[in-house]
Amino acid sequence: MKFPSPVSLQWLAGFINAELKGDLNGMATGINEIHRVENGDLVFVDHPKYYNKCVQSAASYIIINKEVEVPAGKALLIVEQPFEAYTKIVQHFRPFEPATKLISDTAAIGEHTQVFPNVFIGNHVTIGSNCIIYPHVSIMDHCVIGNNVIIQAGTVIGSDAFYYNTKKDREVWYRKMLSCGRVVIEDDVEIGAGCTIDRGVTHDTRIGRGTKMDNLIQIGHDTVIGKNCLFAAQVGIAGGTTIGDGVVLWGQVGVSKTLSVGDHAVVLAQSGVPHSLAGGKTYFGSPAEEAKQKMKELVWIKRIPELWKQGKEREKEGEDE
Amino acid sequence: MKFPSPVSLQWLAGFINAELKGDLNGMATGINEIHRVENGDLVFVDHPKYYNKCVQSAASYIIINKEVEVPAGKALLIVEQPFEAYTKIVQHFRPFEPATKLISDTAAIGEHTQVFPNVFIGNHVTIGSNCIIYPHVSIMDHCVIGNNVIIQAGTVIGSDAFYYNTKKDREVWYRKMLSCGRVVIEDDVEIGAGCTIDRGVTHDTRIGRGTKMDNLIQIGHDTVIGKNCLFAAQVGIAGGTTIGDGVVLWGQVGVSKTLSVGDHAVVLAQSGVPHSLAGGKTYFGSPAEEAKQKMKELVWIKRIPELWKQGKEREKEGEDE
Amino acid sequence: MKFPSPVSLQWLAGFINAELKGDLNGMATGINEIHRVENGDLVFVDHPKYYNKCVQSAASYIIINKEVEVPAGKALLIVEQPFEAYTKIVQHFRPFEPATKLISDTAAIGEHTQVFPNVFIGNHVTIGSNCIIYPHVSIMDHCVIGNNVIIQAGTVIGSDAFYYNTKKDREVWYRKMLSCGRVVIEDDVEIGAGCTIDRGVTHDTRIGRGTKMDNLIQIGHDTVIGKNCLFAAQVGIAGGTTIGDGVVLWGQVGVSKTLSVGDHAVVLAQSGVPHSLAGGKTYFGSPAEEAKQKMKELVWIKRIPELWKQGKEREKEGEDE
After folding, report:
1. Residue ranges of the alpha helices (H) in chain A?
2. Does any CB of chain C come closer than 8 Å to the CB of residue B84?
3. Does A269 touch chain B (CB under 8 A)?
4. Residue B213 has pLDDT above 60, yes or no
């Protein structure tokens, strides 16, 4: 998330009650989680295992629970509870805005767009022209919908990321990382009924132009999907994954988090994708492999009894010798 | 889709600006996609690969982008863009009707049927008597619900088919095939929460009498399901498939498109069905096979290390000889 | 389900027109299905196969279609149709209450809880403080939500159990077992968008404190989930299952009914769990096994062609000898 305008480190240090070390005159331009930080951003870290990753990242300013060395031009904001400090800043710049109406006064809806009864459209949502939004769809705060988009009934755009700060030495292990990112849906996208598309934690979840999704599909936070993809029903894609252009995922395929699937890849029904896949090929299985290889394997498995029989015969011959 | 009354080919040719060849005095009784055409119907074809299939189909009148030979009594309507012409005709006879209320004035609801708050009931919907329709259910235009039907919260009946005209030489590859079919739900059916049942493209999606479906189930367009079936949660059935009577599908089973599953078949949890299955048997696996065969295979796989060891011993014996 | 106060067997026998045998002065304290009966409860049985199980169960009073011997202190209520008699009693003590408003007058909602527009909250529902309930959520009658609970859009809490009385010699095979149990969600639970959590048939479905669930997850009736669990999207858990504390289920995992998964078990994505799992271990596959074992098996499968080749060479050597 970028701040509306740069914010002085001095003010931030006061706001979260932090000790400031390093570049004391810095101005932070935004706050992001570690996978998405850019130059000028704040980030937080609360475990020594990740100190170095954070210090070496693009982030300029690090909310941390211990003094460590930083390169010139960077700064530390030292607090006891970095996660809670991060949350406090995010809440300040992206406060929870209650919804009092089904369609927010701050939502902008384009010409010739049909919004059915009982659609929820949150604060600061933008919807383009010539769209059809069917009943019981929820479009949460700050999401952006392009032109000629069709969303079938009951779908949720912009639910919170499934992303938690974990500490197993407290009563409640998982604490919610606030989602202040958006969902951006480009032109000519169609989304089926009963789908759920999570907003980014600090950036955007994005569905590329012309992509068509069937029913009951799950798209995780910060996942970026290319153009002209085709996803059959009940596909699930975890967070932070990148899907290329023209990718086809058949029914009930699952794709794990923070990986990439290359352009024009095809993944057959019920496959599970635990690692990145090169484009232009067809995959099958859980874990997914190239389909022609996997199909051969299924044939080989059926030959095991014959192998067993050969072994037994050979053993018998051995005894007879 | 049948037209309200037969429509002259001459008028149709004028409407879509087509050159008419063959039986010039024909009257079209309806328009359907190729899997569902009947005598008297219009159909469209835009790829030479399918010309012959369309000409030889039950369709009487073919919207096509090239002159081909046709049997006597049939006619061609030649246009540059057959898909767009098809869409124009469908839109004319089944125009988009905006919904202005949660329950349409043209919906008919039977006696003793309980409709919870926040249910959407579209235009020309019929619901029988003694039904319970829970909150946030959407029943889209033209769908038909029988008597004693229970639909749990959040379910969508009559979402659009996931069915596209594909051309990869344009910016947006997939163009929506308009869904003008219906969903027909027979008496004594129960449908769980969060399910999605797509309407037929030009015909009906049908759920047979007494069938019970758990939550988060997907039923594709034009799929026909028999009587007294039992589907556990998260089952997905693709489009154009026929399921017999008394079929049991356990949790997360996926069934592919345009195939058939025979009466009283049982498919165990998480199985994937890529081809038609004979009735009266139990299946397991992805791809699904007869369960007892598949279970044996799982045992054989566990014997591979023993086979390997035997091979090694045999090799050693060979060296010792 | 417990009755508001104990009910005399004499009255019950008259109400369902039953012949009473055994302890004629008994007072029933509740009515439950066979998996959940306690001392003082009524239960029903209509198949000789289960007579003995019911008579030997904790239930004190048995609605049955034949006279059998019972231990002292128990009683039989003999009727021709035990299931229908059971249903009549349940309906009397838990009558269908129509909903006329989005938020029932009998619902209690705690301080600082944000309820978005278009949330359905049924009769006798209790919601704690500091919760956020997003749009199009349905919380059905009698459910209980703790404090600091977040429920994303479109989720259904308290849909009916998928639980039927089956007789294949009638036109409609499956008759609905009425669900009179509840869903109880403890403090600090978060539930994603588009989830479905069924109420118990006669007892509670329960989600333990601090558990976090992603989108499109199905939880069956009477299932009890521990504290600090983490379930990724599209997980499905069938009815009557017990999940321990700190259990992690990755995306699209399916867990079968009436089994148990031990504390701190981890089940990798797309696995299927057909039997109980010990805690503290990691599992993979469908059917699920210990992941390290399953991973080895996947490597062994890839060695089958080599085994085949060795067998062929050996055969050739044999011929050469």
Report:
1. 9-15, 48-56, 82-93, 291-301, 304-320
2. no
3. yes
4. yes
Q: Where are the domains of chain C?
A: 2-93, 108-294
Q: Per the CB < 8 Å rule, is C196 touching B233? A: yes
Catalytic residue (choose from B124, B221, B264, B275): B221
CA torsion sign for C284, C285, C288, C290 is negative
Which amino acid is located at C55 in the chain? V
Alpha helices in chain B (DSSP H): 9-16, 48-56, 82-93, 291-301, 304-320
DSSP state of A80: S
Q: Tell me what pLDDT residue A197 has.
A: 98
Chain C residues close to B264, C-beta within 8 Å: none
Question: Would the ipTM clear 0.85, i.e. be above it?
Answer: yes
- How open is the CA angle A144-A149-A151, to the nearest 5 degrees? 90
Residue B112: left (phi > 0), alpha (psi -120 to 50), or beta?
left
Report the alpha-carbon distance of residue A223 to residue A235 in Å, rounded. 14
Give the span between the Cα atoms of A205 and A230, in whole angstroms: 17
- Chains touching A by CB (3 or more pairs below 8 Å): B, C
Q: Which of C35, C92, C142, C221 is catalytic?
A: C221
What is the CATH number that goes with domain A2-93?
3.40.1390.10
Cα separation, C42 vs C94, whole angstroms = 15
Which strands make up the sheet holding C260-261, listed edge to edge?
C108-109, C126-127, C144-145, C182-185, C204-207, C224-225, C242-243, C260-261
Average pLDDT over residues B90-114: 95
DSSP string, B235-290: -EE-TT-EE-TT-EE-TT-EE-TT-EE-TT-EE-TT-EE-S-B-TT-EEETTTTEE
Dist. CA A30–CA A5, nearest whole Å: 9
The Cα B34–Cα B220 span in angstroms is 17
**Distance between CA atoms of residues A230 and B7, nearest Å:** 36
**What mean pLDDT is reported for chain B?**
95
Distance CA A40, CA A19 (A): 19
CA pair distance B130, A60, nearest whole angstrom? 65
- Given CA atoms A78, A83, A88, A93 in this order, what sign does their dihedral have? positive
Please tell me the distance from the alpha carbon of residue B156 to that of residue A192, in angstroms, as a whole number: 10
Do the domains A2-93 and A108-294 sit in the same CATH topology, yes or no? Answer: no
pLDDT in tens, B229-281: 999 999 999 999 999 999 999 999 999 999 999 999 999 999 999 999 999 99
Taking contacts as CB-CB distances below 8 angstroms, the residues of chain A near C114 are 96, 98
**C69, C67, C89, C84: which is closest to C13 by C-alpha?**
C89
Q: Check if the beta carbon of residue B288 is closer than 8 Å to that of residue B273.
A: yes
Chain A residues with CB under 8 Å of C305 CB are: 300
Query: B152–C160: do the CB atoms touch at under 8 Å?
Result: yes
CA atoms within 13 A on the CB side of C209: 6
Could you tell me if C300 lies within 8 Å of chain A, comparing CB atoms? no
Query: A108-294 — its CATH code?
Result: 2.160.10.10
Contacts of C302-305 with C-beta under 8 Å, sequence gap 24+, read C302/A297, C303/B304, C303/B308, C304/A297, C304/A300, C304/A301, C304/A303, C304/A304, C304/A307, C304/B304, C305/A300
C136 torsion bin: left (phi>0), alpha (psi -120 to 50), beta (else): left
Contact (CB<8Å) A162/C116 = no
Residues of C in contact with A252 (CB under 8 A): 252
The answer to whether the beta carbons of residues B217 and B177 sit under 8 Å apart is no
Q: Show the tokens assigned to C291.
A: 């992941």
Q: Give the pLDDT score at A70.
A: 87
Tokens 């002292």 locate to: C72
A218–C contact, CB cutoff 8 A: yes
Angle between helices A291-301 and B291-301 (to 10 degrees): 90
Q: In percent, how much of chain C has pLDDT > 70?
A: 99
| A245 touches B: beta carbon within 8 Å | no
CA A70 – CA A27 distance, rounded (Å): 17
